[in-house]
Every structure is written in structure tokens, then in C-alpha cells.
């Protein structure tokens, strides 16, 4: 069976390295699915979930705040701005981050503050959605 080598890294360090049968990622223009022998691709990622289906059929989930996805025929590299493994997802912390981002957005006085607050809110909302989906799957 053909397979992909997957490497997920962020500024915090190495998040995941392993073999996969399929990878799904939140590209800026929509979710992409990558199978072995995919044509080369380089695209930006938006905040969301990167899913890795292993060769044994297990699905691993990782939250990314954005970054770059590089695809080669047998290699997928995710260079995430920040990443979180599903086992580290905390719904309460994600909800708090979303509330703080909403407060910053409401108090933004300059266009720079507004743009930064909007980006933080998008990331926090995506992180909260990631944590809630995981919570619903495991319970």
C-alpha cells in the first residue's frame, strides 16, 4: 500500500512525524485531501484541524493556527505557526481565549488593534471548535 511521510512542526518544536494513508488540511481556499503520489503543492493554511489517517486506519487530529502546507508525492510537511495535538486540547482554555479575543475586539481603537483582535478571535474560535468536536467524539 502506498503511503505518505507526514511531518508537522511549529515554533514550539516537532509535533508529529509518521506514516499516513491520507492527510486532510485547512488550506486557505478550503480543505484539501492529500493521498500518496499527490502532485506537488505549496499553500497557506488557515486556523483549523489537520487530520492524519494512519496506515492502520487510526485518525489523529492536530489544531494549527495557520502556516504553510508543502506536499511532495510521498511527503507532507506542515509548518504551523502554532500547533496543538488533540490530547492537549482544553475546551475551558479555548473558551477563555475566545472570550478574551472578543473583549480585545470590542476595545480595539486603531485599525491595527482591530486587525490583530480579529485574527486572534478567528484562531480562538477555531481552537474552541476543535476542542468541542474532540469532546463530542470522546464522550
From TrEMBL:
Domain of life: Bacteria
Primary location class: membrane
Family annotation (CDD domains): F1-ATPase_delta
Residue ranges of domain ATP synthase epsilon subunit C-terminal in the record: 90-131
An example molecular function term from Gene Ontology annotations: proton-transporting ATP synthase activity, rotational mechanism
Its job: Produces ATP from ADP in the presence of a proton gradient across the membrane.
Domain ATP synthase F1 complex delta/epsilon subunit N-terminal: 4-83
Localization, UniProt: Cell membrane
UniProt-listed SUPFAM superfamilies: Epsilon subunit of F1F0-ATP synthase C-terminal domain, Epsilon subunit of F1F0-ATP synthase N-terminal domain
Family stated for the protein in its record: Belongs to the ATPase epsilon chain family.
Membrane topology: Peripheral membrane protein
Alphabetically ordered keywords of this record: ATP synthesis, Cell membrane, CF(1), Coiled coil, Hydrogen ion transport, Ion transport, Membrane, Transport
Coiled-coil blocks: 98-134
GO cellular component: plasma membrane; proton-transporting ATP synthase complex
Subunit structure: F-type ATPases have 2 components, CF(1) - the catalytic core - and CF(0) - the membrane proton channel. CF(1) has five subunits: alpha(3), beta(3), gamma(1), delta(1), epsilon(1). CF(0) has three main subunits: a, b and c.
Entry-linked Gene3D superfamilies: ATP synthase delta/epsilon subunit, C-terminal domain, F0F1 ATP synthase delta/epsilon subunit, N-terminal
Name of this chain's protein: ATP synthase epsilon chain
InterPro entries listed in its UniProt record: ATP_F1_dsu/esu_C_sf, ATP_synth_F1_dsu/esu, ATP_synth_F1_dsu/esu_N, ATP_synth_F1_esu_C, ATPsynth_dsu/esu_N
Amino acid at each position: 500500500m502506498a503511503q505518505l511521510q507526514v511531518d508537522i512542526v511549529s515554533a514550539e518544536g516537532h509535533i508529529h512525524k509518521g506514516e499516513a494513508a491520507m492527510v486532510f488540511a485547512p488550506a486557505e481556499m478550503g480543505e484539501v485531501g492529500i493521498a500518496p503520489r499527490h502532485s506537488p503543492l505549496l499553500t497557506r493554511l488557515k486556523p483549523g484541524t489537520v487530520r492524519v489517517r494512519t496506515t492502520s486506519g487510526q485518525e489523529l487530529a492536530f489544531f494549527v493556527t495557520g502556516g504553510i502546507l508543502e506536499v511532495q508525492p510521498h511527503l507532507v510537511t506542515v509548518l504551523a505557526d502554532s500547533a496543538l495535538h488533540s490530547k492537549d486540547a482544553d475546551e475551558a482554555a479555548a473558551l477563555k481565549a475566545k472570550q478574551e479575543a472578543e473583549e480585545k475586539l470590542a476595545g480595539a481603537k486603531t485599525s491595527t488593534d482591530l486587525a490583530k483582535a480579529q485574527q486572534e478571535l478567528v484562531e480562538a474560535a477555531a481552537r474552541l471548535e476543535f476542542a468541542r468536536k474532540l469532546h463530542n467524539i470522546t464522550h
